[in-house]
Design goal:
69% of the residues lie in helices and 0% in strands. The protein is an all-alpha fold. Helix 5 crosses helix 10 and helix 6 packs parallel to helix 12. The longest helix is centred in the C-terminal third of the chain and has 34 residues.
């Protein structure tokens, strides 16, 4: 299983690098670029935004050639859900899709996974004193979770390397745990995504040669939602077989693993609602935008958020003896503390910039500015 995993990783890494080079060439020939026409966009030059096509295509190779239905039941329906998100993403990248149609397509993909493919959460793991979920509640929560993560990764993809590095961290995490849990099919999917994302990041670091676009960010979100649900469910199944579970609080561990995209999405939606704007109206108030505002580069901002996510994951692991509710609260407090620090630094930087841009006479004492003795102003 380990040797096969290495082969799949190297195969997808090679495929995505080859595909991206071809896509960059075609994009320049056919003028398929993400143009910086909106004020919220940070890049200043035309850059191809179809990196997600390479990620998706390279990912489908191991899914079709190396993973059997014996390893992952209903794989055909799972690939169908992936295809829906791929078609939605590439349409959005090329011509744009309104939020209503986007949500409908995401809903179809999510329901395909949760109903037909049976990929859904079935237990609260004792959270709030509850365990098994009724079927309809299970479908509702799982569908909402999938749609939320698809959009969370779509929203977090605002600077170079960020969505790719957070996705890579999550896929490395699932690679390790699916290996420990003895799940070859899911292991091969996770390790293949690692190869795809590592290859993409090589071309996405500053100065970026390509962006992943909505095709890539939404596909990563869907894939990580799929892997998260399977990890939580398989870990629970081990417990039901009267074997000590590999992870005591799997939902809290996944929450810690995905805290940056989750927290940023909830935060930005709340801010937009409070300002009486549509939650889907784009702006430049994301966490990564604020890090750029205080003077960090794309790579520095992405690295800081990646390390914050790693710290959150380690925090959950270190305090794994706590109850589930306590772990969730701990992660939320950790995220709020980091956000408070960033808000302080951002406010301080913004005030300093405004002060430096004021005309000289605004900073003089009022008694000098208002006096008729002009000799004092010389």
């Amino acid at each position: 299983m380990a040797a096969y995993s290495i082969f799949i990783f190297l195969a997808t890494l090679s495929l995505v690098c080859y595909s991206i080079k071809k896509i960059i060439y075609i994009a320049h020939k056919k003028h398929l670029f993400d143009e910086p026409t909106e004020l919220r966009k940070i890049h200043k030059t035309k850059i191809p935004n179809l990196g997600g096509v390479a990620i998706f295509a390279s990912m489908m190779v191991p899914c079709c050639l190396f993973i059997s239905l014996a390893n992952i039941p209903h794989l055909n329906y799972i690939i169908f859900a992936f295809l829906i998100i791929f078609i939605l993403g590439i349409t959005d990248d090329l011509v744009g899709v309104n939020p209503t149609k986007k949500i409908i397509a995401q809903l179809i993909a999510a329901l395909t996974l949760t109903t037909i493919a049976g990929c859904r959460l079935t237990s609260f793991y004792g959270l709030g004193g509850f365990n098994e979920m009724p079927e309809l509640l299970s479908i509702f929560i799982s569908t909402a979770f999938i749609i939320f993560l698809v959009n969370a990764f779509n929203l977090i993809d605002g600077i170079n390397c960020l969505a790719g590095s957070l996705g890579l961290l999550a896929c490395l995490f699932f690679t390790f745990y699916f290996f420990k849990l003895g799940q070859p099919g899911l292991l091969y999917i996770a390790i293949a995504m690692c190869g795809c994302l590592l290859g993409f990041l090589y071309f996405n670091h500053t100065p970026a040669k390509i962006f992943m676009g909505d095709t890539g960010s939404m596909f990563i979100g869907l894939m990580i939602a799929f892997l998260s649900i399977n990890f939580i469910e398989i870990n629970k199944t081990v417990t039901l077989n009267y074997v000590a579970p590999l992870v005591k609080s799997a939902p809290a561990l996944v929450f810690g693993l995905l805290i940056i995209p989750i927290f940023d999405t909830v935060r930005i939606f709340l801010l937009r609602v409070l300002k009486r704007k549509s939650p889907f109206e784009a702006d430049s108030n994301h966490i990564h935008h604020r890090l750029i505002d205080i003077g960090l580069s794309h790579v520095e901002a992405s690295f800081i958020l990646l390390m914050a996510n790693v710290a959150s994951l380690l925090l959950v692991s270190f305090f794994s003896h706590l109850k589930m509710e306590q772990l969730f609260l701990l992660i939320i407090l950790f995220a709020l503390s980091l956000n408070g620090l960033l808000t302080y630094l951002h406010t301080k930087k913004t005030s300093a910039i405004k002060k430096s841009q004021e005309p000289f006479f605004y900073s003089l004492p009022k008694k000098i500015v208002n006096t008729s003795d002009t000799t004092l102003l010389k």
